[in-house]
Amino acid sequence: xxxxxxxxxxxxxxxxxxxxxxxxxxxxxxxxxxxxxxxxxxxxxxxxxxxxxxxxxxxxxxxxxxxxxxxxxxxxxxxxxxxxxxxxxxxxxxxxxxxxxxxxxxxxxxxxxxxxxxxxxxxxxxxxxxxxxxxxxxxxxxxxxxxxxxxxxxxxxxxxxxxxxxxxxxxxxxxxxxxxxxxxxxxxxxxxxxxxxxxxxxxxxxxxxxxxxxxx
Length: 216
Description:
The structure is a single chain. The chain folds into 2 domains: 10-135, Rossmann fold (3-Layer(aba) Sandwich), CATH 3.40.50; 151-205, Winged helix-like DNA-binding domain superfamily/Winged helix DNA-binding domain (Arc Repressor Mutant, subunit A, Orthogonal Bundle), CATH 1.10.10.10. 45% of the residues lie in helices and 14% in strands. The chain has helices spanning 19-29, 44-54, 70-80, 95-103, 116-127, 151-161, 166-173, 177-191, 196-205, and strands at residues 10-15, 35-41, 58-61, 85-90, 108-111, 133-135. Strands 2-1-3-4-5-6 form a 6-stranded parallel sheet, with helices on both faces. Strand 3 (58-61), helix 3 and strand 4 form a beta-alpha-beta unit. It starts with 9 loop residues before the first strand and ends in an 11-residue tail after the last helix. Mean pLDDT is 86; it is low at 1-6 and 139-146.
């Protein structure tokens, strides 16, 4: 492998458990005069052992890996090398997964079905210092209105936002506390939240609740 030592060369590390995909990426990337692949790994553990000695600028990291997953690998990588720019390159197109990756320090999130030119463009952009780059992600982060929740569930969510207990919500809506518990359970499931506070936070994230308005 010919290494280009110009300062403009972008050094890339590949992490994916599919050798055919890594071979394809290697061929694609090294056809670019400013890109060079300096290392590869098939698991998160292997990547963490090799990445420090490879001195990459950008890492293309799969989410689904044997052993520790892409999220854990991402966090550990950034602790080892804070200047490393990581692009999650994965089969997932979930906006929620992409958001989690960004919150954990990824500079970009690309679905594996994106066009080659967009992948190369993303690598150059994160190397230049840009972050928050996403391609091939489903547009579903902010559904309008209450497309996720029923009108009654929305009413419960608004009262949850005010900090009311199940009993207080039941009194306000003239329904039993048991019925309120059922609504709360469905709300948590639909919003992917672990608790009431998480459900309210997701309500804001999804545009179901609006800041400063106690009614919703």
